Automatic annotation (TrEMBL):
Organism of origin: Aureliella helgolandensis
Transmembrane regions listed in the UniProt entry: 28-50
Basic and acidic residues: bias regions: 205-216
Record lineage: Bacteria, Pseudomonadati, Planctomycetota, Planctomycetia, Pirellulales
E.C. designation(s): 2.7.10.-
Residue ranges of domain AAA in the record: 519-649
Sequence segments annotated as region (Disordered): 202-221
Protein's name in the database: Tyrosine-protein kinase etk
Gene (name only): etk
């Protein structure tokens, strides 16, 4: 079996989970009633202050319809994610907050908190599918909840429509100039064709084609493809020019709106703002210290100055925030501009790749066109020249036609409306979000119910009871000589009796190694109910069995003796009369238990214990008894409430300090050891009692042995 004296535990943690059970077991008598009382009060308070809120929802959908060209519309696949920043931006919310009719809403009635409230109560979702967008608003007035919700949705649609119009307007503006250039080119080619035809053939070139032209079907097809490519190149160049113009004129670029939360966060992190906040917190800390120590009158002038400094420092914080805001906005705008520039550069690069692909296709078709043109020139002479002039004219005219069609398509699609449209406007809700605040009541009641338990836990944490032997070892106390299993409560607990006796024997074995000739052993504790009397009586029996000699047990707890009750002996005449000179030593020793253990009970106290129990009297008593007893065990009173114990322990050769699991407090045990050492007591170790039998068996094992023809232990 493992030696208890050498068993080592890790240092106890800062918080021992075992405290939860200890706190409940020791304080449930007041924790439960107060918990129910607090829970009822908290639930009633939440119920009485509850005001039902109504939520109105405006549903929108992505407008994916198109008239002629779907590619002109840039509609996000996830509306809620892409439009959230715009909806919560000041561009959308400021017109809503400025509407006098909406200031009747309870949540927007206070101008100082209206912006914060509208952002807090506004929620954006997707209604279960990415192409739907929901804007919801909560308010205690159900009519105003619907009004504010619809106002936010309408303001958002106006801003979105304006952004879409500006985007398509920029493309339209860049198509006008290429169309004018191609108009002039077509007119020049038409005049050239008319002149060549009249001089060579004398007929109108815009009437029926000649037989030779009907044979040039392959060239017509190539020319058509070249026209399409040229039109696409013109549109692509227009897009590149539009993006390049934004890059060349950053001051005229319309950047995406900034997120107010980002602005507020960076303003709060500004060095001057932080400095002002630290100054305010320092002043408030000084005020709290004065108030906590209740020295307002003693430091009245300083306290008054500190109170006056608070509004000034709060004003400094506001001024610092106002001063920092322009710089923060400028910084954020710079970051947004850089992000937009990178995005624009990626778009330009993508369009340039498209333009390069068109150039490659155009070069291949142009080469094929030139080969066919050379062949026809060899066959037709002057007529071929006219034919090619007609081809150039028709190609330019076709490019112009495609550009005009693209411009007409763009203008037609602009009339389609915004990329987002209303599907269902918000209606006045019929029912509140929750009629009865069950969740809030349960949460408040639960928190209030746990409050007394938290107080009990805090109390136990501050008391720092010893819950395991590691707590003793961590306090640099005397070494632990033994852990004593809890005394079993029932007669049937054979294992419990066996483990208890085994733990006493282990203590006795460790004690004999420590005694080194000592014969008088005191057993004491810091406070009462810490197991010292049980340890003293059982230790005396164990020593007697081992040494095969009679052991004397003295009950020196004159205030509250226990040994006569433990053994069923009379309490007279006892130690009190012996020390008081009223009885002889031989009359005070009770030998009725046989030759194993003799007992001197405490007797009845009739005088001040400090006058009876002195070091000199105890030393004289031990000197008279040493010739008759090899070991003398003294059960003393607790040290802290009964200081006369120090006289008895200082007269003994060795002293055991008892501590009870979940009962003894760390500070009490430490203070007791210090008092014992200061009095000259030889504290050889600590005994840790009250260990559950299961824990003792787990730590040290249950190595059972059998004996023949012996009754079970009592």
């Amino acid at each position: 079996m493992q030696n208890p004296a050498t068993a080592k535990n890790a240092s106890p943690p800062a918080f021992d989970p075992w405290l939860l059970w200890i706190a409940f077991r020791k304080h449930w008598g007041w924790v439960l009633p107060m918990g129910f009382l607090f829970a009822s009060a908290a639930g009633l308070a939440v119920w009485s202050q509850f005001v039902p809120e109504f939520e109105a929802t405006h549903i929108m959908e992505a407008n994916r319809d198109y008239v002629l060209a779907q590619s002109l519309h840039n509609t996000s696949r996830d509306l809620a994610r892409s439009e959230r920043q715009l909806i919560t931006n000041a561009l959308v919310l400021d017109p809503v907050l400025a509407d006098p009719a909406l200031k009747k809403a309870p949540s927007l009635s206070n101008p100082l908190t209206a912006e914060r409230q509208i952002r807090k109560r506004l929620s954006i979702g997707n209604a279960g599918t990415d192409n739907l967008l929901t804007i919801s608003y909560r308010d205690t007035d159900k009519v105003m909840a619907a009004a504010v919700c619809n106002a936010v949705a309408e303001s958002y649609l106006q801003v979105r429509r304006r952004f879409d119009d500006e985007r398509m307007g920029n493309v339209e503006a860049w198509l006008v100039q290429p169309i004018e250039q191609w108009k002039r080119n077509v007119e020049s080619l038409r005049a050239n064709l008319a002149e060549l035809t009249k001089s060579a053939n004398g007929y109108d070139p815009f009437k029926e084609s000649s037989p030779r032209e009907r044979d040039a079907s392959q060239m017509v097809q190539v020319r058509s493809e070249l026209s399409n490519i040229e039109a696409e190149k013109t549109v692509t160049r227009g897009r590149i020019n539009a993006l390049q113009s934004q890059a060349d004129n950053p001051s005229e670029e319309k950047l995406p709106p900034l997120n107010p939360r980002d602005i507020d966060y960076l303003v709060a992190e500004d060095s001057q703002v932080q400095k002002a906040k630290l100054a305010l917190e320092d002043v408030k800390t000084k005020i709290r210290n004065i108030e906590r120590e209740e020295r307002q009158e003693l430091f009245a002038d300083r306290y008054a100055r500190l109170k006056e400094d608070v509004p000034r420092l709060e004003e400094d914080i506001r001024n610092a925030e106002v001063a920092a805001r322009p710089q923060v906005i400028s910084t954020l705008q710079g970051l947004v501009a850089e992000r937009e520039a990178l995005k624009r550069a990626e778009q330009i690069e993508e369009f340039q790749l498209q333009l390069d692909e068109l150039d490659i296709r155009q070069a291949a078709l142009q080469k094929e066109y030139e080969v066919e043109k050379s062949r026809l020139e060899k066959q037709g002479g002057e007529t071929a020249e006219i034919f090619f002039a007609r081809e150039d004219y028709e190609q330019a005219a076709e490019i112009l036609s495609q550009l005009n069609n693209r411009l007409a398509t763009l203008r037609t699609e602009r009339g389609r409306g915004s990329s987002v449209s209303t599907m269902a406007a918000a209606k006045v809700p019929s029912w509140p979000i929750e009629e009865i605040p069950f969740k809030k009541v349960i949460m408040a009641g639960g928190a209030a119910f746990l409050l007394p338990f938290a107080l009990a836990l805090l109390l136990e944490f501050r008391m720092k009871r010893l819950t395991h032997v590691g707590g003793i070892e961590a306090q640099n106390l005397a070494p632990v000589l033994g852990e004593i299993a809890r005394i079993p409560g029932g007669a049937r607990s054979t294992q419990g009796h066996r483990l208890f006796e085994e733990s006493i024997d282990a203590l006795r074995a460790n004690l004999l190694f420590k005694l080194e000739g000592a014969r008088t052993i005191a057993v004491t504790s810091a406070m009462s109910s810490e197991g010292k009397s049980s340890v003293a009586s059982q230790l005396a029996i164990s020593l007697a069995k081992t040494s095969q000699t009679t052991v004397l047990l003295i009950d020196a707890d004159l205030r509250s003796p226990d040994q006569h009750d433990l053994f069923g002996l009379p309490n007279e005449p006892g130690l009190c009369k012996l020390l008081g000179g009223q009885s002889k030593l031989s009359d005070c020793i009770d030998k009725s238990l046989g030759d194993l253990v003799h007992v001197i009970p405490a007797g009845r106290l009739h005088a001040n214990p400090h006058n009876l129990l002195t070091k000199s009297k105890m030393e004289k008593l031990f000197a008279d008894l040493e010739s008759e007893y090899r070991y003398i065990v003294v059960d003393t009173a607790p040290v802290l409430p009964a200081s006369e114990t120090l006289a008895a322990t200082s007269a003994c050769d060795a002293t055991l300090l008892c501590a009870m699991r979940d009962i003894s407090r760390t500070d009490h045990v430490k203070r007791t050891q210090n008092r014992l050492l200061a009095s000259g007591t030889n504290v050889i170790g600590v005994v840790f009692s009250g260990v559950p039998s299961s824990d003792y068996a787990y730590r040290y094992g249950d190595y059972h042995y059998t004996t023949a023809n012996l009754p079970p232990p009592h």
